[in-house]
Design brief:
26% helix; tRNA_splic_suSen54_N; 6-stranded mixed sheet; tRNA_splic_suSen54; alpha+beta; 245 residues; tRNA-splicing endonuclease subunit Sen54 N-terminal domain-containing protein
Length: 245
């Protein structure tokens, strides 16, 4: 008779680096230096839409939009995590609905509200993956839709909220992650390389892992945990144990 053992593959080599200090120094503004953000000469511009909790890009510059933002009715929108990441690296200037420029402090405030389908832990994971070149989108949110108006964006928010409230002991299916790909197209992205779930406290139970795997179908599921600014990745696999005589 065969039995099964769940093996934890800690610190996934495809995702983790031994030391994130260089990344943190490069991308995280230090306290007291936020106001010193330097924008690129070719920064894009976006206007925050409080109704849908996203920023509408009104001026696109550079190639970043090939793998960033979702298209809805011919308009390009980016989530709070995409908005903050681009603002931190100086690639996006954000204004509010009155046309007033928003500082990084203002964007951090929007993230802290946790009303836009994202929290600080989600953002740290998103930034880590984007810094490594991965293509990252919110789980279950299509890259493109032809629907016009805010209905499609409202549906995006509904999907995000629904996924974040799944009763899986704190597990959150957060992102669809694609390997770096210079030929990536939003109109035909294909299946993600894996679904990434965030753990809050203890590692997931075998039952929860099996539920997530059934939901994701043939797409692999990986997990990540954020603690003290460090992002760790792990996954599970089944192994057959030999039958003892």
């Amino acid at each position: 008779m065969e039995s099964e053992k769940w093996e934890i593959c800690s610190s996934d080599g495809d995702l983790c680096t031994e030391d994130l200090k260089d990344e943190e120094d490069a991308f995280y503004p230090l306290s007291g230096s936020i106001s010193k953000l330097q924008f690129r000469k070719a920064s894009s511009r976006a206007c925050w839409n409080s109704e849908v909790g996203m920023a509408e890009v009104v001026e696109r510059k550079g190639q970043i939009w090939t793998t960033t933002g979702v298209l809805r009715g011919g308009k390009l929108y980016c989530s709070i995590e995409e908005t903050l990441f681009l603002a931190e690296i100086g690639a996006l200037v954000l204004v509010d609905e009155n046309g007033t420029g928003l500082s990084l402090e203002g964007i951090y405030g929007k993230l802290a509200e946790e009303k836009n389908g994202c929290c600080w832990e989600h953002y740290e994971v998103y930034k880590h993956l984007k810094s490594l070149g991965y293509i990252v989108g919110r789980r279950g949110v299509p890259w493109t839709l032809k629907s016009v108006g805010t209905d499609a964006l409202t549906e995006d928010r509904f999907i995000t909220d629904r996924l974040s409230k799944l009763d899986l002991n704190g597990l959150e299916p957060a992102f669809d992650v694609y390997l770096p790909n210079g030929k990536f197209k939003k109109s035909s992205p294909g299946d993600p390389s894996y679904v990434l779930c965030l753990t809050r406290e203890s590692p997931p139970s075998r039952k929860d892992v099996e539920v997530l795997e059934r939901q994701s179908g043939h797409i692999p599921v990986k997990f990540c945990h954020v603690e003290n600014g460090r992002v760790s990745f792990f996954s599970f696999s089944k192994v057959d144990l030999p039958v003892l005589p």
